Fold this protein.
Amino acid sequence: MTLQIENLTVYYRTLRGDVRALEDTTFQVADHEIMGLAGESGCGKTTLGHSLIILKPPMKYIKGHVALDEQELPIHDMKRMNPFRFKEISLIPQYAMNAMNPTRKIGKMTAELLGSRGVNFDAIRTELMRRLDLVNLPDSVLDMYPIELSGGMKQRMVMVLSTLLNPSLLIADEITSALDVSTQKAVAEMLVEFRNREFVNSMIVVTHDMSILYQIADSIMIMYAGQLAEKASTDVIIHSPRHPYTKLLISSLPEVGVRYTETKLQGIPGKTPLLLDPPVGCRFRDRCPISFEKCMEVPPFMEVEQDHYVACWREF
Amino acid sequence: MRSYFGRKFLIYGLTFFLAVTIDWMIPRFMPGDPITNMLANFSVSSTNSNAYAEMRAYYTQLFGLDLPLWQQYLNFWKSLFHGDLGISTSQFPTSVAAVLLRAVPYDIFLLVPGILLSWYAGNKFGAFAARSRWLDNTISPLGYILTATPYMWLGILLAWFFGIVLGIFPIAGAYSFNIVKPTLSFSFIRNLLWHWFLPFASLFLVGFGGQAIGMRNLIIYEIEADYSRYLEALGAPTRLIRKYAFRNAILPQITGLALSLGVVVAGALVTEVVFSYPGIGYQLLAAIQGQDYFLIQGCFLFIIIGVLLANFIIDITYIMIDPRTRRGMTGETA
Amino acid sequence: MKKQRNKNEFLYFALRNVKLLIGFSVILLFLITGLVGPLLAGNEPFAYVNPLGPQPPSAEYWFGTTFFGQDVFSQFAHGLQATFLVGILGGGIGTIIGILIGFVAGYRGGIVDEILNVFTNIVLVIPTLAVLLIIAAYFEVRSIFSESLFIGITAWPWAARAIRAQTFSLRTRDFVDLARMSGMKPLKIIFQEIAPNMMSYLVMTFILQFGGAILNAATLDFIGLGPTNAISLGLMMQHAVNWGALQLGHWWWFIPPGLAITAIVGALYTMNVGLDEVFNPKLRET
């Protein structure tokens, strides 16, 4: 088991109180697993992704444990977390287009970054070249400034950079949203390739784009309003989901393979609750067609079948 | 890069053209007859009618006021290219060019170290201020106070405190009045530096404040930038993140230096007045008070040329430092 | 509803921002001194009231008297009025010209932008003071209003550049596109859609122009090219220097005017930083 998360709760501190963006989440990611993390915007998926690597204000750690390869991660401590970053757990950020220092040559920046983490650039150079080759980047990119690269090239460069130290866990945050459809597909396939070649052990791919997940993810976890709704293998989620929200979400997609756009899920009546003062119990119950009294209590995220977790009282 | 330079040259060319045109207009559109005005202030006035008539004839011919305006304008450009800026009336019979050439070294002596050192020290300090809340809360207010201080007041304060109260620095002139002829001796240079220090200090301090503030604010923004966040997520030490932020903030600071030149020149002007320091600013004020139009024209031209040159040097530096413009990217669109 | 919340949020942060409050208090203090001071002083600024000539501050003459026995406090208070007037008028004119040019250049883009941009850069390169000196020398009789006007028409390029850049980035936003597609006239779009969205920016631009105008005016006044027949803080400093206040140690003559200018301009800058923090959540101290 690569990643084990228990009761992780993270809020956002704001003026008007705490936004309860991530509530009591417990789940696992297995070795070599590519887990897709999906949901509407504001459902807490980015919060979850970021809190695993860089949890700083206005984010606020409330409780919970995170273990990576049986080792406890001190995610609430910015300093103590540092040895794990890049080496054990890494990130391909949403802003990959602007992630590289504009005034440093990419090679030099890489060398300086590695040097600062106690890794010898020359020792890793041949491996870096090999990986650049793998993502179809010429070696000469190392001698270029980020502005000389196209968007897709920058994206691939950041992918190589983020995974260079073979982290155990990679968090890919909305990495395809800024790209055109054909590039999206290539980038997604590269992620799989990176896993197959064991550059990374397991991955969490945060996205609102189900079609990408259908292509690459082994499993998909659905979040709703800061709570986990369902996690199962990709096939199961797409073809036989059990949580009412997942069902509505999947059926609202015209057909699998077509993207849905952020925020608008017209298939589901009602609005996402405000997380400043979320409803008691299951947060989906106001919009849920099959809710009943029991839903006033928070449903546990239970394994109803082998590797199929659901948080719905109707399913237990 | 070529288009970047082309643009810059167009702006410099147009600026120079416009400045010369304004310059040409100065005596011609001042109220009253410039020649009478000028000669009224002129010491020969009516006591020596021969000299007066001679002067009058000289200036009438020089201004060519009987010629059509466009002819006057062309002639102005022509004499400009011959380096002929006319003869100063207040310092007759010295030519304006001679007066200015005598004054310019003092300006260079004052402005070049003043600008460069305040820029360097200000940026270092500003970056330093952005390090912690505590430093920020002590250095930033100081910077704001310095940059809000009118140059002449700081000059007055320094002159009063160090010159009068403590009596350690002279408060007027570029060297002691009892030195008749400047020589290249050690004692003269010492004397020169002694007189230079306070005017330099007032220019330096105000500039320092502005630069420190500018740097501090830029660094704060850069540390929030995406590339900084990425480095942080990959566990890079704060030292590296700050180093990158500084490198990226220094570029706009170079452009900022070019933009602040006008303010510094204005500052030098009044500082020279406070300390009776015989640079262009001092000459310009004297020329305005003595209605010495040729000298006003000359001062204005020299200031513009100086600022344009400085801008040009800064542009070249920017291109050499910013990889984006160096690599033929569009870069800064100033 | 969103607007209401934004407003409250602004007030919430504004009232808790130390920089904003300090800056505002200092400005208010000097403004009140400028308004009430002349009444308290009782003496005309140029009247020779003290037959003893230069005297240090006393109960009768709070800031002492000048070489000629004029009441320094009276000059100071009247000078403050002039300073605020020049700041508001000069800064206002500079901001308005800057807004007009910046909006038009940023919104129209293309050739209009090119031309205005070149023009702005030209005016930016020419040292303001040199031009101001010449304009001022041109007029034999000068008032605070003409001084403000000159300062305003030479100070706008800064504002224009900043506002152009902002307009440029707002121009491509959805709501502006929507307004354009719905057939709204450009001027209406600029003032109804773009301007309200950069109100914070405009306010900050005005504050900077305000401070700049005060400093420019002080310089002009000090050189003796300020308003004729009116007292100002810069003129006080000129008189002090010309009449040997430094050599004679009449510190009360030249310290108050410069200190007031420094304090006012410094307070304006501080307010600006405070406002920036209030408007820009990223800079807020957590």
Observations:
- Chain C has one domain: 35-279.
- Chain C touches chain B through 52 residues (CB under 8 Å).
- The radius of gyration of chain C is 22 Å.
- Residues 35-279 of chain C form a domain with the MetI-like fold fold (CATH 1.10.3720.10).
